[in-house]
Amino acid sequence: MIESLDEQKCSGCEICFNVCPCDVFRTLRQKRLVRIAYREDCQTCFACELDCPEDAICVGPMRKHRRQAW
Amino acid sequence: MSIEPIETDLLIVGSGFAGLWAAISAREAGVGRVAVVDKAAIAMSSQSRLCAGATIYCLPEDDSEAWLRDIVEANGFLSRQPLVAEILETSYDRLRRLEEWGVSYPKGRAGDSYARIPSRGLPHVMMMVVPRFRDRVGGSAVVDALRRQAIRVGIRQYPRVFVTDLLRSEGRVAGAVGLDRTTAEPIAFAARAVLLATADCSFRGNYVCTDGTTGDGFRLAYDQGVRLSNMEFLSTNTGSPRFGFEGTGVALKWGGRLLNARGETFMESYHPDANAAEIHELTLAMVREAEKGHGPPFYIEMGEAWKTRIGPALAGIGGFMPINLAKLEAEGVDLGGRQEWVPAVQTLRGGVRIDSDGQSDLPGLFAAGMTEALDPGLFNGWSTMRAMGSGERSGRGAAAYLSGAGPVSLDADQIAALVARATEPMERKAAGSPRPDDLIERVHALIFDPEVSISKRGERLGAALGEIEDLRVAALPDLAASDAHELVKLHETRNMIQVAETFLRASLTRTESRGSHFRADHPALDNQHWLSWVNLRKGGEGEMLVETEPVPIDSYPIQPRTEELSA
Which of B2, B130, B353, B525 could tie B229 with a disulfide, CB 3.0–4.6 Å? Predict the structure, then answer.
């Protein structure tokens, strides 16, 4: 699950907002920033971390608990 | 509120392999205006982007009839054979076109031929892996190249639009309404044809990177009264309950083993191929072991093979796995050691019943990719080829339809009513209203029951069906959403509940076992009675109608061998 977005490094380019399949981010245009708005819906695909040109995002490999079979 | 519809000739919902191939082939076939919408950015929400990109291409030197037999047998003879054969026959041309657009696949040792590996469990079929495009590797390489080509041929892009309903007029499809995913502003399209390419349904389960596949196209089509087919086939896979992992099949073929709670291997008691058996055989065996009290928990143990073979291979396939593996290692997760492993619902293999042009029962409504019903099986490299081949075919089919279809007239009242219904949950903010996440939990509890999704029993299916109907009728209308994000999730929940109902109804109907559909109370394959598709559609009163449609096996090139018929 996504862990952090470093506001010091974020340039507000919105690439993470655009590549996230799960709509986890919201943009703050006036501040040229992006924030993690819906962390619980992160599916741990790493798309944002891989594509962030500023290396501002960290996604951890552990996912939230999910219900499955047993 | 009056909404001015965006005019287009063809509206494509979804922008993965299928949607983008459809867009390109429709433009090339002369369709003037092709609009592509996606609930995320174009080419971003898709399973195509997140998959490793292994693809079955049938080269001129391959024995295409042997390939067709492999595929048809792996699909329990429920394939729509002429359509599968067409996809195989045209696959080499698509490979050449992808190469023209900049995609490369590794070459073999001979220099000019391709490096290929067998698709799991199929005797003849070979697939190519590790596609590259610019700095991308895997499925994202292919989908990026397709996106660029689609833009080059002049598609119009509508990113972050969630389609909530289709529009119809005079017995034809006439467009769609949807919501902006950031603002919840309504948007409408007037379209002379609509093509659904929204993948399948994973119910937001435990399998990796499938949260976006919520059965959107299935429900859009179902609400128009068109037939869905093969909805009883829900493929399960296995994986970690804690982290994402793609490649269990490869791991178990290359020395990995499944263990029960006592630390014993068990697959050899259930299948002659033991740990190398088909994926759905693994989950079935886990359920059998659980019935004996030998689990849960279950484990995977990859041992030395993790370091020597499995790990290096999975780190090189592209997609999310390389970074995932690096992060797991940094967290101290030892994949060579014993890891808990659980069954995971992966994908529902049914879809919209289509004709040879990819058209549904409703004139002008087309489907492609995992949204169409082509065949119910799941094996490496075929879903990607299916998506691309069906996208190309259905895009061309839509173009042929459009050449003879007149303009559509939209009813402003119809649009206003659908928009009002789609946005109404935002007005229901009262504390105590159920939220989408609450209902998703309840869907999970019903569908992920092993006796519903893996080793099905009529009684349990019937009980789950009753509860799902209750959710749809009683709980869904009261759901509230606080913002655009949650509103989209609410509509995804609505779609998953409807799809769950079709899955349960179809599973109850098929009283035999075939492929990933295993009925513990009807464990035998029954070719005498069940070489048939189960079709479902919504009746005039909102009721679900069921029919069985015999597979026209006598007119198909591949038929069961005598011993398979009597099996």
Answer: B353
